[in-house]
Design goal:
Elements lengths: L9 H6 L4 H12 L10 H15 L2 H13 L4 H15 L1 H15 L7
């Protein structure tokens, strides 16, 4: 086990005591390795990730990844357009579920409520 101090992360805060190995893999492999690979920037990774989550109907995960996308430079209009575009490729129900979450997160004015 590492002697480094444990940092607070979304995964650790949500599941650290319940699923420590899943948290470790999420933090160390997914976010510290995969998300930092140089061939795609954070903005592009966010667009890909949000698209995949919409297509798969994983709206719970959108609650983390839409704000992360905004922090990575994706704007409100792009999130809405991404979901609208995916309605034709991923299915209307997936898009309608995703747009409801996006509206909740983005608010009417485009910022966090």
């Amino acid at each position: 086990m590492s002697s480094q101090p444990t940092r607070s992360t979304a995964a650790r805060d949500a599941l650290g005591d319940f699923a420590p190995k899943l948290v470790d893999l999420t933090d160390r492999v997914l976010f510290d390795d995969v998300w930092d690979r140089p061939d795609l920037g954070p903005r592009d990774r966010s667009l890909v990730t949000v698209s995949a989550l919409v297509a798969l109907g994983k709206t719970d995960q959108l609650r983390f990844h839409i704000p992360k996308a905004l922090a990575n430079g994706v704007d409100r209009a792009e999130v809405v357009e991404l979901i609208t575009h995916l309605a034709f490729y991923a299915g209307w129900p997936s898009a309608m579920s995703a747009i409801a979450v996006a509206r909740e997160l983005l608010g009417e004015a485009g910022g966090a409520p």
